[in-house]
Design brief:
NADH Oxidase; four-stranded antiparallel sheet; alpha+beta; 11 helices
Length: 333
Amino acid sequence: MTNPSLPLIHELIRSACSAPSVHNTQPWSWRVPDATTIELYADRNRQLHATDSRGRDLAISCGAALHHLTVAAQAFGLRCEVTLLPSPGDKELLARIQIMVGHIETDSVAMLAALENRLTDRRGFGTWEVPDERLRHLCEAASEWGAHALPLTDPGARHRAEDLIERARRTQADDPRISEEQAKWTDRFSAESGDDGIPAQNAAPQHWSGTTHRPSRFDNSRAPKSTGTHEESPALDPTDGLVAICTTRDDLHAWIEAGQAMGAVWLRATLGGLAVTPVSQVIEVEPTRRLLQRELFSYTGRAQILLRIGWPAVPRVPLPRTPRRSLEDVLRP
């Protein structure tokens, strides 16, 4: 049996801060009133105002950190009782977590290992197909976090989603404010900051021969200009999977839940040896978001983020770890 303590609470927060976040902005901060209570806050100074004007990406990122905190606690034999948005008048306070004595679940240590090994891999996938049944199994992980995950297995729906993803990518590539914002958060480790942002090697890595590849937001400098007539998405590759994280509502509460569900699916994929790349541009660009919602998700909830999932190609050298802010930097007094 493990009892909560301040050093252990700090260790849980360190684990939570390894969560994925848009552009590795790590838009969260934490307050520890006592050894059994943690509060999660949004750090609006780290919001991408050009890319993410509503703060959806920020909230999803914080939700992923909240999920990782819970996973880490379970590995130490602790239980988290989470209250989302506990103070209606304070939109910065996203969650209050009570840490209680629990027990170690059968797979909790393995999940903590997956948390520590999780990364965003943009190098392309191997050519082995991810079976539909495997995708459905991954999606089951989202169900206990207030959201649900749907695999896009229908070829027509998948092709339309890829069209809209490519349209959104091109739209953002043509927006100087978004391009400037993206450049600000790329390769910061060699500039004014050493603890956030995405190393260039991770943002736009070299693609190995024998892998499938679709352009990501960081391929914008090589994006062809949109003609404004029709979309020319990359050829459909049936071997990688596309999963949508959906919610019944579309508000701050739902975005946090989507982030928790995303974290759950991502860790289950990592535990199963799969690689994951988040796809959020199609949600960030309002016209493509509306089309995606109307054409593919009108009866299944609000799509909040997509995940591209596939087998990593082998052999594959490890990617450098994206930097992380220090504990002192993320803790509030």
